[in-house]
Amino acid sequence: MHALSFPWLSLVIGIPALGSLACWRLDPERAWRTGLLVTLLALVLSVATWAALPKGQTLWDPFDPLAALGLAPCLLLDDLAAPLLPFGALLFAVTAFTLPRTRPTRGQSARLLLAEAITLATFACQNDVALGVLWVIGLLPFDAELRAAHVERLRGVRVYMAVSTLLMIAGLIAARRPAAPAALAGGLLLAAVMIRKGIVPLHSWMPGLFERAPLGAAVLFSTPQIGTYLAIRMIAPTAPAIVLTVLGTLSLVTAVYAAGLALVQKDARRAFGWLFMSQSALVLAGLECTSVTGLAGGLSLWISSSLALAGFGMTLAVLEARRGHVSLDRYSGGYESTPMLAMSFVLLGLCTVGFPGTLGFVGAELLLDGSVQAHPQVGIAAVVATVLNGITVVRMFFLLFCGARAPLRPELRLLPREHAAFAVLVAALVLGGLLPRPLLDGRGRAAMRTLETRRALRAAQPFSSSAK
Question: Which of 21, 211, 392, 405 is 20 to 30 A from 381 in CA distance terms?
Fold first, then answer.
């Protein structure tokens, strides 16, 4: 393992962190503009970082903090992490450019950039202790945003996050003890991931988060799917088969259950929350796959569905900023006033469910092809969930934009920055579907490495973290 010739990772992580500090010293208007500029710069640097990685290699950053202390480096760039950096940077850039400016504050921009720095550092981290620390501090900007928005009815979210964090810490401790049963560490980490992703207990906090929290904060907290990253780094390669079976079973049940509930919601935010849960559960179910094709499909679906869901959620935020609360109990009309917003809504919604010609379609097909022979229930559940989610997207489009006469209001049209953000996101998802090889090659190598580690350790070795 060699060092990068240029400190790409330090730049990608450090620039948003420095931007966050700068925003606290600026007035709200300049802080907002600085936030937009920094998210764009981080996106460009993350793409360059991905391009700087030779195929199949693992490189560490020359400015790695642990390496400077003579320890094993923690910031590593490999086939799994490299595309996650532009993925995370694009999530934050699109959200920053489409956040409604109802109450511009320098704190909002500072918290957004801090959350971006922590998320990108998490995607580059392969040390179990550092990953646990990033898991914890990643909750702080999100909690601060909820407090700034004076959201009172989400105290239960903090309880679930605290329980998830304690389980994660206990799992890391158990993973480092050779005498601990193999299933113990895997089970603790699995429980932490399931709670963080809202799958257990009984999906109790995730829909309420999307319903009551600021949509931008909810989207940026949920769509990177940090729990999935922890699962692929620390559970999928080394966990016993029983842990992976539980993971796959609960995820498939959640995917179908949440898809059914999304279809009958009367509130647009809650419908989006259940749609997100369904699609993110499908991603987690893909980690159980024992074939390179299926696991690579799950990793690809993670990126495509999260990007599409983030854009879909922000179209709701933009719509709310123009109309107020949006409901699904009647036809609202208004397509003529906001045609580009309506088209962005339906296109990103279809990308979410893997419409043919998009990147999500490629990932879903690989997941089904790689898993259906060994686990037919995966194919059945995935198809049922996808069909129900597709109906939900079309239903929401008709109810929110069609079916009723509304006066033409040109002032409701998309702003140039919103138009650009949605156009770039749709283009990335469509071009990714037409030219998927740059992403799929790396996903395939990451899946192969994960499965090789799983087969090597499955013999008799105790559960241990793969991040050394």
Answer: 211
